[in-house]
Each structure stands twice: as C-alpha cells, then as structure tokens.
C-alpha cells in the first residue's frame, strides 16, 4: 500500500485502529522510517498485566526509487482484548480531527467546539474532550510554514466594486483598528462608508503589526491613492495617537472628527458621575442651539471639571452643533466601523489568506443582497431614509405654521407641545407646499442606491490562470502566538460596553419604589 507522505500513512493507520477500538504507540519515527506497536506493549499501559502481550505492529518506509511511503510490515489484527475502557481513543489526535472537520469549518469558520465534539462522536463513535477539539480547530486556523517565501509587514486591499460604489456615497468614512485573534499578533484596520440606504459599505482593509504612527500614515495614504482620490472627505475615528499623527500630516484637505462614544467613554473614566453620561451625549449629538445650551448649562452644574475636560478636546471636533463645516453629515460615532469589526470577529481567527478571502466573500454577498433590495424598492428615497422621512412627516402634522413675510419666506413654526410660551422656534422656510422628498441630498435617493450596487464582482478563476509573480509572501513568523489553555471567547468589557442601569418598576402601575406584591393599587 502506497502513500504520498508520512502524514497520510499515519492517518490511515490511526483510522484503522480507531475502527477496531484499539490504540497504538509509536516506537520509532524518522524522516524515512516509521514503526508502531499496540499500546498494551507500552510502559505507560496501566491495564491488567495478562493483556500486555499483543503482537500487532506496523512499520513503513520511503521507497528509494519512487519517493513514496509504503507499509513494509503489517499484522492484520490485535490479539489483545484492548484497553479502551472509556469511550475515547488516543489515536484520535487533534490533527486527525482537523482533517475530518476541515469541510465543516470551511462552511462555518466559527464552528463551535461543542459541535466539533458532537460531529466526531457521530462519525467515530468516540468522545473527545474540549481541549482536543479546540486544538483541532486551532490547527486549521494556524499558519502553514513554507520555504523560499518573503515575509510582509503590512498588507492593504480594497475591492473594485466597493471603490466605485463609495464614489457615490456621502463624503464621510469611519476608520478603526481591531486585534487579530488567530495565530499571529497584529491588527486589522478597516475603512467603512455609508451607502445611499444609510447602511454599512465596507471600503478598505489592512493588516498591520500594530496601530502606530507609521501604520496609520501608510493606511491613510493608500486609502487616498486607491479609493478616495482628490475627493474632499471627513474622517471619523477615535483619538488614537497614530490616527492623530497621520491626520496631522495629510495634505489631501480631509477633515477630522472624533467619535462621540469614545469621547464620552474617556470623560466617564475620569469623572464617574452617571448624570454626565447622558448630558455629554446630548451636547455632542444635538444640532439645536437651545438644546445644546441647556445641556451645557446642566453639565457645568454637575461637574465644571468634566466640562473643562470636554472643552479641551475641542468642541468643534466632537459636537454636531459646533461642526461649522457640517462635515459629519450628522454622523456622531464610528459604530459602522465597530459593526464591521464584529462581522469579522471569526475571520480574525483565520490565517491571513483566509481572512482576506472572507472579506471578499462578505463584500460580494453584501453587494448581492443590497442589489436585490434596491431594485425591489420603488419609493423616491431609499428604504431607510424613507422611514425617517415618514416619521418626520407624521410629526410635522402636529406643528403650527404662521406666515410673517411671504416674499422673504419667513414663517414661524411652532410645536403643539408648547408650554408657558416656550417650545416654538422661528425658521426661514423657502420651499413651502413643495415636495419634501426632492429637497434632501441626492446621495440618499433610490436611483443612487441602485447605481452603487450595479457594479459586479468578477468570478475568481483557478490559480493556474493567474499572472505569474516572481515571489510569494507570508506573515512574519516571529509574531506567532502560542496558545495556552482554553480560548477566551469574551473580550474585556470597557466603559463603552456598560449600559445605564434602570431602577426596577412595579409590574402593575409601572412606578418605582415597590413591586407588584406591595403595590398600593393591587388591593382597592
């Protein structure tokens, strides 16, 4: 019996022993030779002594002429009772399990360990512990060592259809970095835009060694060269030193704004007062002058030091009201970038090439889904924007409009919720009795939404059709991580993950301070 390599020979021998409910121990393993005996002949065997005399053995070697492996000695069966007292088998190694689950992991890269255990139980009738199943999955996630290839420090990629679609989006982009979770230390940098339906559009990706001045400058430079071009842009991000440095050096005329969630998280670390959390968000998110001033006054009343901290962060960089250039287009956070990081949470466990392939498959599927949804929608505004328009249209029906100067189009728009002479605001309206759906930005109409996703991905042909290159690349082996113990599936929670605690309310009257058992309205 011939085998291509030693691994195939070992795989066949171990499979045979598992099927026969027996175990083996390797006695000799060299580059050109292999020998194994029944496990009952091992000094590690702890079973009854009368079962130690099994004559089963196997040996294999490399054929000198054909350079293939062959079995040169084989005994057809064990002459022992076997020692598999529990429903496990030492022949079922992590590498053998990895071979069996490779197809399942290719379909679901987050194939849970519990599912691996159940799958192996089904095909082998053998129980495997958590650690062995987890190591098998990590074996597939790990790198493949090759000789004669160069290592890379940074890699950047963006797909043509996404680049063309982004050219029709609003001029904002959110950037963020997140950890690789697989065999290598490193970071994934992402750039995300918003399509005409106010949804995520993945634009560009990169893998770097860490978030530094050099890596962010390199990433933004390639983003401008291959994606944005000469277009004016607003970059929304956290206040990472690498991003601040890169934006200070850029000469493309881009505007930079801070993520409100990160600003609020930072101030809450220094001033742990719950009222600041809500007031900070109101100050940063409102575009209304009255609401802004009232929130600032309330915040200063709670903590003047917290307000001074926020002022030092430059109000124009993180508040909508003080955004004089209106560069943010109403966007306050980097949530779309954080959402994409969450989508890639399992891909970040894979080897570099598999991670890149996953982003390709995800972006291709994203374009397919958005194309179908856009061409099934018939309203003048895109689907999500139409919902916002309808909500505001219904709300506006409760407002009272009074004309002050018809020639200059001066009207007083007053809310029906006015109390004690407050609540009304004077506005200059120049489009009274006109279709409001044509007054907004053309970036949000259905036609643009369809145009963005009319670009298609070409089918990737077999690698034999690809252009030849003079070298191969791989990741830096010095950045490999050696995993120990169980995989930690939950990340450390920070200030941004905390939710505002709400006081319990009565289930009958919905008031605070008591429950349904002590509710005064329960018994008349």
Question: So what's the overall shape?
Answer: elongated
Strand content: 15-25%
Kindly provide the radius of gyration, computed on alpha-carbon positions and rounded to a whole number of angstroms: 32 Å
Fourth CATH level, the homologous superfamily of the largest domain: Ribonuclease H-like superfamily/Ribonuclease H
**Which class best fits the helix and strand makeup?**
alpha+beta
Task: Compute the average pLDDT.
Answer: 83
Assigned CATH class of the largest domain: Alpha Beta
**Shape-level CATH architecture of the largest domain:** 2-Layer Sandwich
Calculate the terminal CA-CA distance, rounded to whole Å.
Answer: 89 Å
Strand line-up in the sheet with most strands: 7-10-9-8-11-12
- Number of structural domains: 4
- Work out the helix count: 16
Secondary structure tally: strands = 16
> Helical amount among residues, as a percent range?
25-40%
CATH topology of the largest domain: Nucleotidyltransferase, domain 5
Uncertain residue ranges: none
